[in-house]
Automatic annotation (TrEMBL):
Protein name: Polysaccharide biosynthesis/export protein
Keywords carried by this UniProt record: Signal
Segments forming domain Soluble ligand binding: 119-166
InterPro entries assigned to the protein according to its UniProt record, in alphabetical order: Poly_export, Poly_export_N, Soluble_ligand-bd
UniProt KW Signal keyword: yes
Domain Polysaccharide export protein N-terminal: 39-113
Organism: Sphingomonas dokdonensis
GO molecular function: polysaccharide transmembrane transporter activity
Length: 192
């Protein structure tokens, strides 16, 4: 008879230990489970992105520019253009307006992201580290880039911390789960 209460106590301690490790709720729907095509359709620039700015008929003003640590892109003639947390189309409009303000007559400017900032994966994968982001990257693709799961890996739930945020969020690992540029993905260890 003492065995049964001891077993219940053990189970209670086990589950409370799991709760103390910050597992929290597991999300299995929402924006990260949308189609991969929409993953970067409203993409906002961040530090580490490289943008190609094309000023038509002005090859000396055209080039690839990094988003600097201060969140700016430095363009010839017009100087720094704010880029952090803005879509690339706004950067093109802003640059076009600045070029038109005394530098060029009727400028036409286009911009596109050439290199996305990297994502990071750590925990129970064979090759944790920093990897280049590709458009439409899923969590399963991220694990594949990191050479797969270790034998101890939790293959049901992963933790993702978005760039600029402090807390990790638990997500149900499915083929549709999207990873964004700058994310830190952590594969935890399974308990049993």
């Amino acid at each position: 008879m003492l065995l049964r209460p001891a077993f219940l106590l053990l189970l209670t301690l086990l589950f409370s230990a799991c709760a103390e490790k910050g597992q929290g709720p597991v999300i299995s729907s929402g924006e990260r489970y949308a189609s991969a095509a929409s993953a970067v359709s409203d993409y906002r620039l961040g530090v580490g992105d490289r943008v190609r700015v094309t000023v038509f008929n002005e090859p000396s003003l055209t080039g690839e520019f990094w988003v600097n640590p201060d969140g700016m892109i430095s363009l010839p003639l017009i100087g720094s253009v704010p880029a952090r947390d803005r879509p690339v189309s706004e950067i093109a409009r802003d640059a076009q307006a600045r070029f038109a303000d005394g530098y060029l007559r009727d400028p036409r400017v286009a911009a596109e992201v050439m290199v996305f900032r990297p994502f990071y994966i750590l925990g129970e994968v064979d090759a944790p580290g920093q990897y280049p982001y590709v458009n439409g990257l899923t969590a399963m693709n991220a694990v594949a880039l990191a050479k797969g799961f270790t034998p101890r890996a939790n293959r049901d739930v992963i933790r993702i911390r978005r760039q600029g945020e402090t807390d990790e969020v638990n997500y149900r690992l499915t083929p549709e789960l999207i990873v964004y540029p700058g994310d830190t993905v952590r594969i935890g260890e399974r308990f049993f």
